[in-house]
């Protein structure tokens, strides 16, 4: 499988594949309500996908957030987790943030995923809060 990360917009034919994977991971696996999984930021966001053949097997999106960038909807197909794809996506986000002169990368991490983001230089900020019935923590990676 290629681990090339392909940048797409919501008008790309690959966007449907990204939404399919997100549905499978967040709505089916994690019981996030379908009507909040896709939100108003999706249409204008920069999306990224990793493909196996024509299937999207990993995805994330990035949106502007003041002088920072907000990373979200990070998902890897269940059977491919633990193989470094999530790390590849976040390393790409860090590279993009640096290239764009972003002040920081921010994200709302599921508390159980916080160790994954910590390994990539993110630190928790503020209290734990509920989002879609799942405990979350805000995490920030200040760019050097
Ligand atoms: N808890 C603790 N450590 C974790 C972890 C977790 N949930 N997920 C990954 N890690 C660690 C890995 O062990 C690895 O450590 P190492 O470098 O010391 O070996 C490192 O983080 C990178 O892991 P990687 O294989 O790149 O992660 P992944 O491809 O499985 O992607 C997620 C991580 C969280 C994106 C993936 O598990 C996923 O899609 N989960 C379901 C959706 C989700 O919860 N998304 C996050 C929403 S905030």
Automatic annotation (TrEMBL):
Occurrences of domain N-acetyltransferase (ranges): 6-144
Family annotation (CDD domains): NAT_SF (cd04301)
InterPro entries membership: Acyl_CoA_acyltransferase, GNAT_dom, GNPNAT1-like
Domain of life of the source: Bacteria
PROSITE patterns: GNAT
An annotated Gene Ontology molecular function: glucosamine 6-phosphate N-acetyltransferase activity
Coiled coil: none
Name of the molecule in the record: N-acetyltransferase domain-containing protein
Organism for this UniProt entry: Sorangium cellulosum
Lineage per the UniProt record: Bacteria, Pseudomonadati, Myxococcota, Polyangia, Polyangiales
